[in-house]
Amino acid sequence: MSPAPPLALTMGEPAGVGPEIIAAAWRALNDGAQPFAVVGDAGLMRAQGVPVQPIAAAAEAAAVFGRAVPVLDSPLPAPVTAGRPEPANAGAVADWIEQAVSLALAGEVAGLVTAPIAKAPLYAAGFRFPGHTEFLAELTADAPFAGTRGPVMMLTAKDLRACLVTIHAPLAEVPELVTAERVTRTARVVHEALRRDFGVARPRLALAALNPHAGEGGALGLEEIEVLAPAAAALRQEGIDVTDPRPADTLFHDAARTGYDAVLCLYHDQALIPVKTLDFWGGVNATLGLPVVRTSPDHGTGFDIAGTGAARADSLIAAVRLAGEMAAARAG
Prior knowledge:
The chain is of the alpha/beta class. It is built from 12 helices and 12 strands.
């Protein structure tokens, strides 16, 4: 049996912490259990003090990984200063992502892990997507996929998988955005992903309420009665095991987490606060409902600490491991 393909790891914003945490991740993982090929600038990787080997194809990564960082070299057009993004390099950052997605769609890599990007220089260069997730959805839109299309953002730490119905929406807009259609689509994506990507044969989903005390029978809001409970009932008619809306303040403690495999959260902080409280350094962002496996560290570019040696690679290491596990589940 031929070995599984490696992962592709995109370098992200070159002036951020991406290059140094990639170097740290390679040091932690170079026993070869989960090889990856970096898509980025080989010279910038060498500057991180690790051995680097440019490769011509992703298939070469496994043979190189134990002794050097394998890099599918795509040099940057402008010099890099840690902590100071250079707009001239924004096009290369987007190209690295496109290259990694193409490799994944072709089966040359098992999935991709994306180091953080900085949106401002990308926007200045004409990038028209809110972020990584939407860009990946566009790049994979025409690829065959036997499932409900995402993207759905899942944040995971330890035994918690928190999946977002809305993401970067102002809190004042959330009630209008939390529709039955959006809740049911998110639930379908998560249900299918748990089976396909995580090996959960009979997924159990919990649905967080929007209002305190799940609306207190309508006294504190009607969304649970008018939107959430009917959506949950419709999902159960489809065979999806999901709870009625539950008060969010009792959903995340140790005992509660044993009762579900993933929780549907209705807005950004409802998901991210418990994830980051549970494991601030090691949380992972995974994108569900795409034809390719994709994970990323649950943090940003860290311009304020880039180049200082203070950046921790825990989240990137966890993202690499999770991507490998998801890819293996799909292959199996």
